[in-house]
Write a structure and sequence with these properties.
Oligomer: heterotrimer
Order of helices and strands of chain C: HHHHHHHHHHHHH
Radius of gyration of chain C: 24 Å
Structural class of chain C: mainly alpha
Chains: A mainly alpha, B alpha/beta, C mainly alpha
CATH class of the largest domain in chain C: Mainly Alpha
Largest sheet of chain A: none
Number of helices of chain A: 11
Distance between the termini of chain A: 44 Å
Amino acid sequence: MTEFSHDVLLDEPAYVPPARKADWLMRIGVTIVTLVCFLALFGPYIGPYDPTRTTIRIAEPPPGLTEIPGLMAGWIGGTLDHPPHWMGTDANGYDIFSRVIAAPRTDLKIALLANLLSLTVGVFFGLVAGYWRNWGTELLVRVSDVVQSFPVFILAMVLVALAGRSATNIIIALAFVYTPIYLRLTRAEVLSQTSRGFVEAARAMGNSELSIALRHVLPNSLTPALIQSSVTIGFAILLTAGLSFVGAGVRPPTPEWGLMISTGANQIVLGEWWPSVFPGLAISLTVFGFAVLGNALERRYEKG
Amino acid sequence: MKKAEPLLKVRDLRVGYEVPGDLVVPVEGVSFDLNPHEVVGLVGDAGSGKSTTALALMGLARPPGKILGGTAMFDGRDLLSLPDDEIRAIRGRDIGIIVQNPRAALNPMLRVGRQIGYAYRAHNRVSEAEARKQAVEMLRLVGINDPERRVEAYAHELSGGMAQRALIAMALSSTPKLLIADEPTSGLDVTIQAQFLDEMWNTVQKTGSAMLLVTQELGVIANFCDRVLVLHQGRIVEDAPVRQFFSDPQHPYSQEVLRFYHERSDGFPEQVSGGAGFLRTEQLTKHFPLRNSDKVVQAVDKVTISVAKGEAVGLVGESGSGKTTVGRCLMRLEHPTAGAVVLDGQDITALNAAEMRKMRSRMQIVFQDPFDSVNPRWTVADILDEPLRVHEGGDKAKRRSRAIAALEQVNLDPSLMQAKPRDLGASTLQRINIARALICNPEFVVLDEPTSVLAPRARNSLIALLARLQKELGISYLFISHDLTTVRYLCQRVAVMYLGQIVEEGTVEQVFSAPQHPYSQALLSAHLMPDPTRRRVDHPVPAALDGEIPSPIDVPKGCYLASRCRHVTETCRANPQVLSELGDGRTVRCERVVKGEITPEDFADA
Amino acid sequence: MLLRYITRRMLIGVVQLFCLVIAVFFLIRLLPADPVSRLVGLNSSEEAYAQAAAQLGLDRPLFEQLGIYLGLYPEIAPGLLQGSLGVSWATGSTVGSEIATFLPVTLQLITLAFFLAFAVSIPVGMLGALNPGKAADKGVFVYSLFAGSQPEFWWGLLFVYVFYFQLGVAPAPLGQLSPMTFPPEPVTGFMLIDTLIAGEPAKFVEALHHLMMPVITLAFILSGPIIKMVRQNMVRALQSDFVLYANLVGLPRKRVARYALRAAMGPSMTLIGILYGFMLSGAVLVESVFSLGGIGQYAIRSVLAFDYPAIQGVVLVITAISLVVYLLLDLIHAAIDPRIAY
């Protein structure tokens, strides 16, 4: 038998692409999300008015663009008798600006908690249903499919309206409608990871099934669910606002974007645009920010 | 052989793609000529730019790649600078191409005949009916049985070899002057590969086309090509007639590639004595139930093998022969339907979960795909630590030094400990997999095609490493492979599997020099030896098999090989065959061999 | 083969529907809402309360209520087995007839929005897919992300403000026809068809005019995910091996484009199924902005009134439609792609 005198490594050095910079779109997403998180923490305290108290000025339009510098100077100089209503007031006399920046406290809290809850529950059951396949977990998946096939908004509306219109109930209802998404995503990823060689290798090494599921399969199956959560947070904000809009969400005077749009909706045909437009703009940008962030994460993950 | 005017003249071809802030040029200045009626091999490692070059000759690059420069003169025109309409007219009419992964290259939603018809009608003014007739004719020409029926098939209904034939039929339908074949046999089994290359070579001879055969298998080059081009790091580093290339390679890279074949001695690995049956299976059987059906897939059918202490036994066979399932049953990654697996006197199929986990430190497995076999999020240190943590526990620092020793054992640098799998190449990772398998000092290791995804050069050095480790550590191997050359180098004994059964078993010398069973004979004769002095195309090939491997769901009643065997008789078709011992210690599953009715052909120097 | 597949799917669908009916039945009775006091008022006498409860059948045991709903006691009231969805607590008319009035409005809205969205999205998505990395592609991409993440009810209001209040080109958001117009005899329930049947082209135009903005609003939101889907599937198809090979054998460009388009259509079918749920949710909000009076608004009204039979009816009908939609999409997918077997 001939021996080889030489033993050289023959892998060509892998090409390492230069570190990719975050693109401008992602930067927009990060900026918006950061701002909204900041407002969720401090928004209710930094507005010029108490967001849950009416003023005597009813349906006052926002200042025109040309008036802003003067108002700014007067406000800083302390010569005004009351702080300016930067976005006007609504039909009840609430200061819209204070309410718009206070609302993330409600909207983001609901969206984040609902997501955390559904993510945890969905990932757990997704792992169980994907790794231990039997009739019980199959049934679980079927049930979750039926829930998922039903229009999310109508389901959430039924749950919240009948359970009582509170933030807690909205969180639970949203968590309920979003859990199947995470369950399905995680299960699909678990199924594909389970057939991979390193899981077999771990088994051949003598790991217990539980240890394989937790140490090998779970960490490698989380990514899709985590990416999805950025998108789902955005959609949860939309849903919360939509529920308020149809009268099945949080109760007034809670500062909440959808509720504010709904309050202004009747006036818009009369030309009073500001009570609805500003909160809507806030939703529009916020959800877009989360969507952009989710998409950027997705692309980053795909490219490795 | 050279003629005055080459058919194709490529000069300074450059193909590259942009990444943010950088330009990568995998093909940077390729130049060569191609003469009419000539068969030229283009050889190089994976990633050397072979396929990119082949595509560029058609004026295309896979996005995001771009052709950056150079000329390819064909019939007085530069293929690289022609306007879209004109190059489209040349593609398929003057230059045909077939690619690897043929099933993906066929449109999954159209019947094969229609696709061939479209390709034919793109270059010939004919009616649909005539195009269909041509499609049938072409399928017949490339050796497809029953072409009238096959034109109605969809790509997913064809086997890999069949789909590759359909591609050839499409590529040659307009009788081009040049056929480019880009690794046409990369996914095919050994017997199918030989069958296919023979057909392709014959077809090209009939149509009078020249051929550029892109491959990384030296066996393919030696048997079918007149001339060799060696592509290395984006350039042609050697251009030589095939005999001269094998006898006297000039470039250091070519020499390196050929070294394995030159260093191989004529001897066979010496037999080991003692410890017989250290690991053995008894009538091991594995059936997989089919969904929505009461039928089963007979993956493994009453396989009995035995591996002595310190012995390497090869298990060879084509895909679908059940050899991987045998390996998985040995490791109890799959629970056998019937039969026993005995390691050192203990039936491991009877162990409970806890006992089995303990037993796993004595037996290990190395899988085919090195990237897939390691947790992508872990570092090399984590990966090597895992078996120690499971089986030995104890001091962390001690385990770390064991891991470093294991790395050194497979000739890897300890600095790799903090690397992650994605930073490493295939052959490095496969060594880490081997190190992981050996770290708890197992007595028996299943090697499940550990070299099949590696480039030929890396394959050779890994086999050498495995041979050295076995000698040093005295481990027993079950080496599962379809690559006969590596089996011959590494193993003392070999078992040939076909459709879940062992058809022949004996020492490597016995089986390789004088195979008895018709299937072993076919397998060996289909093996393409990298030796241009005994080219397959120069003399009639014995012992070829017809057709394809039958489905393991509806296995034949009698001999499983009956549908493909040249020696078949009515009794073969009717009677199941049994393994019988021949005088010299080997076993064969063929009653005609046992009766002496089939004489082995001469494979002495295979 | 095909027929057997369809029958099997239908049977599974019926089982699913049955399970869903039972689940919803118990779910809404489990939640702490009190439909009786919603009906008679919070400070009504105990007697009046009990009388109302008896009238709604809420004094009977839960399983008897279920039995009545399913139609096991036709002598008390007709149920599902008799083809009845029950009687609305809020209005006193049958849920079936109410849904029959409201459902066509919604179907009309989402069908039009769906086709408008596709008509716009396919060329736009192709534009992106055919120019990868260029400005047009980036623009298309950002647009699709933006449109897909917008509050439809707010955009509806915005359109009302701009096109009705400021520009005056759109009608007031007060229904399918102007309140002054006498609606045509309902035959199919679809306003556009009914006006034509009644032979009143002026009212047809008016109905179309009123539908314009809700349809545009919904189509705008829908265009986001559709463009994203078209672009993604098209890019994937264009990069596939068989499209590359079609180019390699010199097929004409038109033929290659057809290969790619067909390949992109298959996977789109599954996503359209998901869009259906997305659309229905959107329709609920858009209907309520424009007071169209569709099934979405009916759902809102029933939910807020704790009108259990109506809620159950809406859930049942929406799910039944979605099952049929999924089945149709699967059949189309199989027709496009021979690899899909029943």
